[in-house]
Amino acid sequence: MPELPEVETIVRSLRDGGQFGPSVLGRRVDAAYVDWPRTIAEPEAESFQGLILGRSITAVSRRGKHIVLHLDEGFLVIHLRMSGDLRVEEAFDAAGEAVPFRKHDRVGLTFHDGYRMVFHNPRKFGRMWLTDNTRHLFKKLGPEPLDDALTREDFFIMLQHHKRQIKPLLMDQTFLAGMGNIYTDEALFAARIHPLTISHQISAEQAGVLLEEIRAVLQEGIRRNGSSIDWAYRGGTFQNEFQVYQRTGEDCPVCGTEIERIVVGQRGTHFCPHCQPLL
DNA sequence: CACGTCACCTGCGTGC
DNA sequence: TGCACGCAGGTGACGT
Fold first, then answer.
1. How big is chain A by its Cα radius of gyration, in Å?
2. Interatomic distance A138 CA / C9 C1' (Å)
3. Which parts of the protein come within 7 Å of strand B, by CB position?
4. Which of A87, A64, A16 is nearest to A176 (CA)?
5. Local confidence pLDDT in tens for the 279 residues of chain A
6. Class of domain A152-271
7. DSSP codes of every residue in A215-248
């Protein structure tokens, strides 16, 4: 469930407490459980278990789709990829017995006060890095779409610098950090831009509209606590606002034309052929 | 540089 | 019921 709005929702819950459990701030790691060692991208999984012990979480932030737990020494960075999920829960039952981990729980960090944070990750794509410095992880990431420092003019110039199909370009994390399949389809629909449009051919005015629509769908996604679909229910409600995503064959909410599905860059892509003509 | 393909994984819905 | 297949919110490594 991981695009920018879902990651931001999790970050806020980890920081402030919320629908996914209490805050992790101030909690100290007392024990580490690793079910799938490849989850630990850095350092080696064996050394990770010892190195994380005794460290406390002092802040929680986000960069693109990465969750950043700031520790009193270093950082724990988490990427959920396709199917990752975090929850914070009590690690022991009333009798003091450890609550068993669930199927697909890959990593568990038990805190000094009896709570734990669990990384649930059915498809095993998600990764964690325990590192003293995050620079090497983020150096290639593009700007944050919600950062006001990114202007419409900047965005137009960025588009002019590439001759690529707009959809894969928006999903390229080195171009812009945080967009995924859902919010890209929704933003392109809102901006009335065909997903195969070559970035280079988008006018300055259209670029401005696109940036604003990207921000609008991301902000609405955050406001609704992200999207919940199928197996990965997270309590979000943005799925109820989808205009085109997963609505193949249904009527376009604007003009009534049937929503089409094509494949772009190996990803299912949904758009209205009438509202989003390929110029 | 841009794009297609495959790989990494598991689970679910569909159609035969 | 069983089974093959296609599909899924992501990304990185290749080859052309």
1. 20
2. 21
3. A 38, 103-104, 122-125, 162-165, 168-169, 198, 230-231, 264-266
4. A64
5. 599 999 999 999 999 998 889 999 999 999 999 999 999 999 999 999 999 999 999 999 999 999 999 999 999 999 999 999 999 999 999 999 999 999 999 999 999 999 999 999 999 999 999 999 999 999 999 999 999 999 999 999 999 999 999 999 999 999 999 999 999 999 999 999 999 999 999 999 999 999 999 999 999 999 999 999 866 667 899 999 999 999 999 999 999 999 999 999 999 999 999 999 998
6. mainly alpha
7. HHHHHHHHHTTS--BTTB--S--GGGG-SSTT-T
CA of A248: nearest nucleotide by C1' is: C7
Q: Are A202 and A159 in contact (CB under 8 A)?
A: yes
Q: Which of A230, A228, A274, A220 is nearest to A251 (CA)?
A: A274
> Where do the CATH 1.10.8.50 domains begin and end in chain A?
152-271
Q: What is the DSSP string of A103-162?
A: TTEEEEEEETTSEEEEEE-TTS--EEEEES--HHHHTT----TT-TTS-HHHHHHHHHT-
Q: In chain C, which nucleotides are within 7 Å of a protein Cβ?
A: 7-12
CATH architecture, domain A4-138: Alpha-Beta Barrel (3.20)
Question: A167-184 burial, b if ≥16 CB within 10 A, otherwise e?
Answer: bbbbbebebbbbbbbbbb
In chain A, residues under CATH classification 3.20.190.10 are 4-138
> Quick one: tokens of A207?
């670029």
**If phi over 0 gives left and psi between -120 and 50 gives alpha, with beta otherwise, what is residue A265?**
left
Three-state DSSP state, A4: helix
